[in-house]
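This is your field. Have a critical look at both lines of this record:
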Amino acid sequence: MNTKISEKDGRILLSVSGELDTLAADAFKDSLKPLFDRSSEGLAVDVDLSDLNYIASKGLRVFLMFQQEITSHGGSVKVVNATDTVREVFDLTGFSKIFF
């Protein structure tokens, strides 16, 4: 699992690639620390999952914690791309209503 954070025109682009399995979830959470630290800025975050092949429930939990932190300060988190496999996991868990 790899993450990349960039910023353009006042929006944050968070790109996540590889496999976000149970073992990678803690590293994923750690990689989001710079954004957690800026959450009070009301960030607008687009999440690109076009190169994410797999996501486990622990990874979904990290996404939910991240979304709750960002939106509690007036920001937004939106998935802008996802593979069919990952989108299906979001659909089955009801997370699509939150992130898409």
In short: The helical segments are 22-31, 33-37, 57-71, 84-93, 96-99. The chain has a mean pLDDT of 96. Residues 42 and 73 are 5 Å apart (CA to CA).
